[in-house]
């Protein structure tokens, strides 16, 4: 069930209802490398699929330390450095 609100006639962009799935949004893009929601072009299908997560509102990557969630695994990895720095800072205080 695709939960789209409407297509903007000027920009050809779609407004997406939160809760739309990645698979539904991928169907809008067909087999190409252009986002079927906002029209943005990508050099690879993989980059397009990573981008489509933004339109779903999903944050599938969770930090096991604090519970914060992210749209991309690379953002989670960067975030984990915050916790690592705190651990290192705590060790330096003990020396």
Automatic annotation (TrEMBL):
Localisation per UniProt entry: Nucleus
Top-rank taxon, per record: Eukaryota
A Pfam family hit: zf-C2H2
Domain named C2H2-type: residues: 33-60, 61-83
Keyword set includes Transcription: no
Record PROSITE patterns: ZINC_FINGER_C2H2_1, ZINC_FINGER_C2H2_2
Keywords: Metal-binding, Nucleus, Repeat, Zinc, Zinc-finger
Family annotation (InterPro entries): Zinc_finger, Znf_C2H2_sf, Znf_C2H2_type
UniProt name for this protein: PRDM1-like protein
Organism, scientific name: Mya arenaria (Soft-shell clam)
Lineage, highest ranks first: Eukaryota, Metazoa, Spiralia, Lophotrochozoa, Mollusca
């Amino acid at each position: 069930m695709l939960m789209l609100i409407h297509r903007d006639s000027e920009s050809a962009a779609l407004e997406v209802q939160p809760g739309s799935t990645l698979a539904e949004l991928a169907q809008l893009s067909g087999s190409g490398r252009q986002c079927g929601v906002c029209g943005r072009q990508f050099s690879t299908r993989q980059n397009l699929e990573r981008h489509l997560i933004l339109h779903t509102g999903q944050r599938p990557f969770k930090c096991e330390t604090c519970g914060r969630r992210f749209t991309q695994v690379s953002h989670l990895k960067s975030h984990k450095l915050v916790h690592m720095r705190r651990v290192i800072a705590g060790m330096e205080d003990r020396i």
